[in-house]
Amino acid sequence: MALTLWSVMTISAGETAYLFSYFINDSKDGLHLAYSYDGLNWTPLNGGRSFLTPAVGKDKLMRDPSICQAPDGTFHMVWTSSWTDRIIGYASSRDLIHWSEQQAIPVMMHEPKAHNCWAPELFYDEASETYYIFWATTIPGRHKEVPTSESEKGLNHRMYYVTTKDFRTFSKTKMFFNPDFSVIDAAIVKDPKEGDLIMVVKNENSNPPEKNLRVTRTKDLAKGFPTKVSVPITGKYWAEGPAPLFVGDALYVYFDKYRDHRYGAVRSLDHGETWEDVSDQVSFPRGIRHGTAFAVDASVVEALVANRAYNPLIPDNLADPSVSKFGDTYYLYGTTDLDYGLGRAGTPVVWKSKDFVNWSFEGSHIRGFDWAKGYEYVNDKGEKKKGYFRYWAPGKVIEQDGRYYLYVTFVKPDEKMGTYVLVADRPDGPFRFAEGKGLSVPGTAEADSPAIVPDIDGEPFVDEDGKGYIFWRRRFAARLSDDKLHIEGEPVSIKTARQGYSEGPLMFKRKGIYYYVYTLSGHQNYANAYMMSRESPLIGFVKPEGNDIFLFSAPENQVWGPGHGNVFYDEGTDAYIFVYLEYGDGGTTRQVYANRMEFDEDGTIRTLVPDARGVGCLAAPQETRKNLALQSHFYASSEKAPRTSTVSIETQPNQPLPDKGSVKNYTRTHTYQAAHVADESNGTRWLAADTDSSPFITVDLKEVRTVSECHFFFTRPTEGHAWRLEKSADGKNWQTCAEQGKVQARSPHIAGAIGEARYLRLHIRRGDAGLWEWKIYE
C-alpha cells in the first residue's frame, strides 16, 4: 500500500524540497503541483493530473493558486475564481491531497464597481502571526489613470489586501500597493539572511507596453512597500506571474513568458541587487501557468510521490482487460492497442505482477501469427481488401485439472470472427487451440479450428459446483460442457433493464448473488450496468434497487468512457476489483484502469466513481529500491508535439447514461516531455518527434553515482525494441555500458552492472521511439 505522510516523514524529515502550485489550460481542471530538489528541475506530481477541481465563483476557475504553509503544518491556498468576480477562492489541506470544503472570500463585495480580483497571494508574517492576502483589482475612476491600449481599455489595477489569523474572520479591505503604474501579480519572499521582505510585481502598463517584473523591499510589512521600484529584472519579453523562491543563498524568480507559451526564470546571487536570466537552465512541466513556489520539508514531497496515482495500471495501450491470480502471481490479459483503429491490433501478451503495481511481460503467449502482416482477400462484393489477424478481448483465464483455458476473440483478415478456446500448461502460455490446427489465411482451403461461439467477447464463469458458463455480446449466454470446450443446449438471452447495443459482458458471484454486468453506449460514453439473480447464472435476473448503472465517466477525475472490463476477487485483501478500459485519446489509444468495488447490505453495487488513484499494492511491494530517476533531470533529442482530445459526455444528475441528459464538452492535452519518464505514472510518456531519425533520451543524475540497473518501459513494447545505453561522468566523454542488439518484445528491458556515471544516454535503435518510465537503481 502507499506510504502514509507520517511514515515517509521518518525517512526525509529535516531535508528541504520545493513545491510549485500552478494551473494549466483554461484552469477549470484545478490545482496542479510540481516538485524539485534543486530549484531548476521541476517534475509534475500525480501524473500531471489535478489535485483539486474548482467549485466556487461564477466561472469556477482555479487560476493563480497561491499556497502558504502554516506553522502547524496546514497548507492554506487562495486563487482567482473568475475573470470578473469580486471574491477569491480559499481551501486548506494537511497533506495537499485531501482538501477542505472550498469557500468564497468576499474581499471586494463592498465595492460594486470593482472589475475583478486577480492573482491573490498569501504571505504569513511571523512577527504578527498574521496572514496577508493581497490581490489586484480595477475600480474605474479610483486611481491615477495611465495610458492603456485599446484591448485593455478600462483596466487600471492596484493591489489591495486583507489580513486574517484563522481564515474565518478577515480585516476590512485596504489598499496594499499604489504606485504610479497599473500593477498586478505581486508576490513576497523573506530574505533569510537580511531578514527584510522582497516583493516582485508586474508593471502592467500597456501603452506603451511595459509588461515586466520589478522589485521593491521593506523591513516592516505593516508599513508597506515603497512604491519606487527597481528597473525591470526581466528582459525584452512580456512576463507575468512572478514566483520568488530562495534556494540556499540564490534567489530565483520564476515567471510566465505568456506570449512565448513557456516559463522563464531570473536569479540573483546577491539577495536581489543584480540579476541574471537562467531560463535556459530551468525545466518545468509543459503548459504550466502562474503559480507559487515554496519550500517544504522533503518528507512532504516524498509523501506526495508515494501517494501517486496507480491508474493506468499497465505501461502500455491496452483494452478489454481480465485478471486471474494463480499462486502468488497476478496475470492480466487484454487487447493490445497500436492506435491503428480496430482494423489492426498489436501482438498479444500476458502481463504479470506479484503486487498488482509492478507489471512485466516476456514475449507473446500466442504463436503462429504475424500480427503486422497484411493479407489480401476478396469481400462479398468482389472488392479486393487487405486485413490483419487480430486478438481481442480475452476472458478471464480459468484452471481445470492442471490446464489453463483462455477464451478469446480472433478476427481474421477477412473480418470473420468468433470466440475460441485455447489451452496451456501455464497461465502465461504458450496457448494453443484446444481443437483443430488454428486459423487459416484467407484464400486457402485449410479448415479453421471451431469457434465455441460465433461472436466476440466470450467470457467464462465457473460456479462453485464446477459447472461452467459462457457469456458473449448482445446479452447471449450458454452452459459449457464439462470439458469447457463446447456449449450445451440452446443459448439464452439475458433480459436486462436497459436496452440497446451491449458488449463486454461478465458474470461474477458474491454471497450467493449472481451479477450479470453489461456495457451500454460506447467510446467516451461507455457505461456499465448490471442485473442480479439468486437462482442461476442464466435465469432469475432482476433490476437492482436504485441505480443499476454503477460505472460511468467521471470527467472531474479525468476518466472518460470506462468500458469493457472484468471483476477480479482478491482473496488476500477480500477486495472486489473492477478492471476496465479507459477511453484514452479515442480509437485504439485505450489504457487499463482498476478501482475497488463496494456493496450495500442488500448486495447492490454502490456507484463506482473511477479515478486515477486506483488500487495500489495488493501484496508486499516487489520493488522497494529507491528510484534515482525521481530526483534526476531528463532531456531528449526531440519531443513529439502535444495531442489534444475533446469529447462530448452526456450526463444527467442522478441518472447517468444511456438515458439522455445534458451534454458537455471536455478537453485534455497529452504532452510527451522527457520528464514524464520519471513521474511514476503509466499515463504519461516521452515520445520523440516523428521526424527524429536518431532518437535518444539523456538523464543527469546530478552527481556521479554507482548504478546497478536501469529498467526501460518502452512505448509499444509488444512490437519489440533494440537499444544502446551509454554512460559518462562529464557529459562529454561517453562509453557504451549496455546494449540490446536484437529486437526483443518485453517490458521492462533491463540494463545491469552499469557502474559509476553521472549521465546516462539511451539510444533507441529499433522500435517505437518513446518511454513510459525509466527507473534507475543503485
TrEMBL record:
CDD domains xrefs: GH43_Bt3655-like
Highest taxon above the source species: Bacteria
Domain F5/8 type C stretches: 639-778
Location of region: Disordered: 641-664
Pathway it works in: Glycan metabolism; L-arabinan degradation
Keywords: Glycosidase, Hydrolase
InterPro entries: FA58C, Galactose-bd-like_sf, GH43_arabinanases, Glyco_hydro_43, Glyco_hydro_beta-prop_sf
Bias kind Polar residues: ranges: 643-654
Family the entry assigns: Belongs to the glycosyl hydrolase 43 family.
Protein's recorded name: Family 43 glycosylhydrolase
Organism of derivation: Bacteroides faecis
